[in-house]
Fold this protein.
Amino acid sequence: MSEASERAVSSVGEKSQETGPLLVVGLGNPGVEYVWTPHNAGYMAIDRIASQQGVTVQNRRGKALTGVTRIGGREVILAKPETFMNLSGLSVAALMKEFSSREGARPSLVVLYDELDLALGAMKIKERGSAAGHNGARSITGSLGTDEWLRIRIGVGSVLAAEAVAVGAGRIGRRGGRDYLLTPMRKADLAVLDEVLDRAAQAVRQIVESGPAAAMNEWNRRA
């Protein structure tokens, strides 16, 4: 297992005793045409955290836009990869290296991204697991060499998504789901997502202050 893999695994302990930096990555696609699409829910979550913390995410490091803040006394790096979704792992691996200490200790990792299989308005926190068809998550697992990294999955599934995926079998159905993810959301759906973004920001804070287990116990039962 690589050093990045080992550090990713160590970031999911029962209670947060970490004093090193926490890398919080939100997945999405760069470009104005993708700003309000379901696939950019991770970007939106990072923007929400940054807004609440009074920081900007605009410094280019590790193939991403980044910003640094402190939560609960701990340094937190906010990042939005600019590699496009399917190559997110390249940025995450670069960020893990970029923000390592002089002694080589890697930052802990939390990744936020959209989940088509979760209903719009839902949110789930997981410490490990398969990508479940999400190309960004698959890329991260491939780059880190492990699926043991903490993730906050933001539900973007809706009636429109279900209809798109159900259009037909094979390539037609998959293309329908992809088209939905890359189409700007309706105002009503954005209003629902807006509330989830606040919950995601609160979950990140709880992960910092109380650890992943406490955050999962608090937020997964609400979904």
